[in-house]
Amino acid sequence: MLTWYDANKRVLPWREAGAGAWAVMVSEFMLQQTPVNRVLPAYQRWLERWPTPADLAAEAPGEAVRAWDRLGYPRRALRLHAAAQAIVERHGGEVPDDHEALLALPGVGTYTAAAIASFAFGQRHAVVDTNVRRVLARSLTGVAQPAVSPTAADQRLAVSALPEDEPTAARWAVASMELGALVCTARTPNCADCPIRSHCAWVLAGSPPYDGPPRRGQTYEGTDRQARGRLLAVLRAATAPVPKPTLDAAWPHAAQRERALDGLVSDGLVEPLANGHYRLPG
DNA sequence: GAAGCGTGGGC
DNA sequence: TGCCCAAGCTT
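The joint structure predicted for all components is written out below.
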């Protein structure tokens, strides 16, 4: 798998030599639930504008929300901004290399802390994302898909599979994730090109189909989530505070619109002004 | 532990 | 055409 990775890895800006821990951190925030191809343009603009945590920390949080563009889940932008401020206050403006310190930052959970420590600092951590969970479910457990949500068993399995040697563990982490992203994919895995197919428990079992409980599809049309997205899109595009009637026009269902707007305000994504106008948080 | 949280692309 | 999926985190 390590050899396969060296020959087949994608060229990505946050993987370039000297990209730095901040670049890795920004990419990890953006890649939480958003595909690589959609992240790339926003990532490039982001690092040009805010090349260090201090640069971002000095901005209004609303600017982070605006620059987040249409990556989705805009609370991630607020958390990245808050994390940058915490890095300035607690770590002298440098992304910490300590797993515990990373985990304490806003928006950084188990996966992201391990990813930054491993990808940026070469440490030995189990980096368990949806790709790795799928690779391990197939190759070691022998089932078509991992559990619906991450489990303690997934984490234990990933730890048990991790090479002992630190630099090898770091290479293994990124390689296993890339294998899941490029070859051992969710829908139609390309087993013919897989470097571990001769060891894969799922392939050796005859590639049995998934037989677990049905996976809940995520509805979107007509949801509060969609309403929030519409309202925030209006505010992102505006250069001045927006009068309420303009927001009203963005979502016809009044009760749902007000609920969504209240939610955005309580999340800190929208700031209501005294004159009844609204804007991204200053 | 479940629910809430965006957006768009691919099959 | 829908449906599934995408480097999760927080409450």
